[in-house]
Amino acid sequence: MLFKSRQAVSQLAAALADNDNAVLEGRSLWQDARRRFFHNKAAVVSLFIIGLIILFALGGSQFAQYSYEEIDWLALSDPVSLGRPSIETGHYFGTDKLGRDLYARTVQGSQISLLVGILSSLVAILIGTLYGAASGFIGGRVDSFMMRIVEILSAMPFMFFVIMLMVMFGRQIILIFVAIGAVSWLDMARIVRGQTLSLKNKEFIEAANACGVSQWRILVRHIVPNVLGIVLVYASLMIPGMIVFESFISFLGLGVQEPQTSWGALINEGVATMEIALWQLLFPLTFLVVTLFCFNFVGDGLRDALDPKER
Amino acid sequence: MTNNRIMQVQDLKVHFDIQPENSWPWTKPLSLKAVDGVSLDIFEGETLGIVGESGCGKSTLARALIGMLPAREGKVAWLGQDLTQLDKRSMRAKRQELQMIFQDPLASLNPRMNIGDIIAEPLQTFFPNMPKAERKQKVQDMMAKVGLLPNLINRYPHEFSGGQCQRIGIARALILEPKLVICDEPVSALDVSIQAQVINLLMALQKEMGLSLVFIAHDLSVVRHISDRVMVMYLGNAMEVAEANELYTNPQHPYTKALMSAVPIPDPMIERNKTIELLQGDLPSPINPPSGCVFRTRCPQALAKCADYAPALQTLPDAEHQIACHLIGP
Fold this sequence. Notes:
A: 311 residues; mainly alpha; MetI-like fold; 12 helices; 74% helix; B: Rossmann fold; 4-stranded antiparallel sheet; 30% helix
């Protein structure tokens, strides 16, 4: 028995010695996080559904029988019976109150809503991360000056600002990005600045300084990769906020311009006819709600995966 | 150790400006005198130990020596060139010869980089055109030298133990073949058996590469083991500098005596009957240090003239023993 196990041990030692020259692969924090994320079923399913919704927004118009601005006069004559959702008429989601195909309009609205959500989050993250990292990294007077600017901006009435922009420049989709992006980077900048400040005093930054690494490389190689986790989590939670905000603006009638539409605008129209044609509310609403749920689950999954304190 | 002096520090002062709380931006900031006039020499291939209680300016002094903190006054002559006068660019070039090992092994390594990249970072900074294969070879050689398996090159810091992380830190500091390495409490975060390994490794590497070390620690026995000479600091000032055995067996300064009496002796019989000379009071604030000799407020043998002017660091007749005290000497 003893002899046998000793033999096994010596075999193992020989095998290890053979392996000695092979480079052992480590597992980085990113790989760790990815593994944890993919173990989270809710997050993976949500990611899959978001993928489907994006596919729907990009390729859904291939299957539409009508364009999103074309009025079906026949359906308009009797919206409650001829305009209800059915496969035969080609109006999968029914028609809206003007006889336009709701399926095509939902596809179009999804494009706008997702675009607004993702693009304005990107703008906010880009500005916020750079501004916050620079502010925290430079520190001192520059830092307090930059942070006072953020405070002044965040004290401005945001809704009022958006309405003013819309009134002055007309209702353009690009303005929605600008308006939302320009205001929502403020929180991001605060978060990144705080992270940078705490990282700046870590010993590995001092070690990099002692090695003569330039300030720019310290920022790019040491600080940004370490704040990226937080930024990613915040971004995934920011996108649904942006979508809701765009819907809110559209619901107030300040958003996208006809004949273009968005989920918020569709919901607004649906609410008006809710009592006789419930589908006009339900279809866009379902898309909005499912998307928000999924983004929030993905954000939660990312947070659990990237939060080092869970370990 | 040779008699070849590589660094000469003269009257080095490092002060920090502190803005009092709730003050106006234009009020004059208070000045915290972390290091207040220290002079010392470092010779080629020697180890200079620095001891003293927390907050006495050991780490600040060490950082000022390699230009990580700006000096308010004084000179740090490195191979004849004053480091305090250099501009940023030439100082960065000098970093190749002056390196540092940190206290917390894990915190001093970027968690997002693998250790191959961490150790190669100084090479990348100073020799950006070095071929990748050569760089990797150098990193692996260095890893072998500090007792790490070279095939662990793609692992990440969190996959290593504290002692291994400290070896990675040592490898990073030594890969540029520096002449002077500052060790800021390199073993105080490690447990005792690992401490011995790391210290023996440092001593072996010092012999092999002809390094000079500045070794900061709280553990007086560790400092005695590794150092050729030891400097005792108190509140930003050098109290006594001597050859290690001489300082431990024949301390002259009242502060050093009190410090040495606190060293535990690994013999329960002696340890039980030992008396520790407890100092009265607390460390005074470095914002408002006592006049004259900074130690006089806690010194059991303080004289009247101790309050009037500070004693200069003078060399005792029997060589290699410098002391700043009015009780001794003229």
